[in-house]
Amino acid sequence: MTTSLMIANRQTWLGSGSIQQLLPLLQTEPQPTLLFTCHSFINGPIYSSLADALMSLLVGSEVVAHEASPQEIDAWVARWRGKVRRVVAIGGGSVLDAAKAFAALVEHPLPTLRYMEKVGDSKVSGATLPVIAIPTTAGTGSEVTQNAVITDTRFSKVKASLRHPNFVPQVAILDPDLLKGAPDQVLVYCAIDAFTHLFESYLSKTASSLSRAMSLAGIQHFLSAWPMLKHSDEAREAIMQASYLGGLTLSMAGLGVIHGIAGEIGALRDYHHGQVCGRLLLPFLELLDGSEHPQQRALMAELAQYLFPKEQDSPERFLIDFITRHAIIPFWQNDLPLTREELAIVLEKSNSKNSWVTYSEQQRQLMIEEAFPIA
């Protein structure tokens, strides 16, 4: 039996209007607080209703426009070191990851690159400022993960994490109202990222009975939300729960070959991570449909029995059909090219992570070539 460790927030608020908990949280324990956020939140109605009261409780703010680079994090640390004792993050996964990275590295002496997985030579100590994480998208689950993803597409060509159990935000506020007005493509790319987290952690060879049960619950939330992302308060709450559970289960069980490839593509191209994962998901399901690996077959049979018992013949085909037929935009059709040189780099660096099967270079190339046009 696999041992399971779950590390989560000290407090998690969920529900419509729950962002109203932020002001009392800040007022109860006054201390110098820095806000990380994004333009879409600042320009929205919820920020307008909070702005006057919120700004009086902050020492400043930083706007995150994309996945943070090591150089940007180093600049924030230089600007705010010694001036901040708490961080609030309101935004998508890139905002939350940037805030978590800053909160940790402002308590560390070396530049960001020295601590990053894959390229760093120093371990993080676990020292961090407390973080209050409030996602405005539902995909990464960063509000409950212990890693902060950093992307450097200019110099080191790497997408990697800072990782420590202490980096899980102390507080998460999951308010589905923050998803209202999000562009269709953002809703879809983030939701398919959440599904990929849940699905890969469910299939992980390091998953436990607890993490698999949570993955199945999250996938059920995804299936109920996916066709109705634009139109339903219930769907918005369901996809936020799916994203949160995906963050928990990826931390508990790890991910698989989809993320093993997607991370390397993300280091080379500024494509939306969720869209990359979604495009790789479809050929992966095709590959999985032909698998005779006993653990994979047993897990897929269990998933089908739990989620759609009338579709036992090919749960993989059912998922392909459901995801493509009910998608509010065809996320797999946009022209996202890779060069032959980039393909070679991705094949060299990618891996199968925690999959039961070690996918060969030929199998990984098949997935990539079916998902992306190779120029």
UniProtKB/TrEMBL annotation:
The keyword Oxidoreductase applies. InterPro entries: ADH_Fe/GldA, ADH_Fe_C, Alcohol_dehydrogenase_Fe. SUPFAM superfamilies: Dehydroquinate synthase-like. Residues 188-310 form the Fe-containing alcohol dehydrogenase-like C-terminal domain. Residues 11-176 form the Alcohol dehydrogenase iron-type/glycerol dehydrogenase GldA domain. Transmembrane segments: none annotated. Keywords: Oxidoreductase. One of its GO terms (molecular function) is alcohol dehydrogenase (NAD+) activity. Belongs to the iron-containing alcohol dehydrogenase family. This is Alcohol dehydrogenase. It comes from Serratia oryzae.
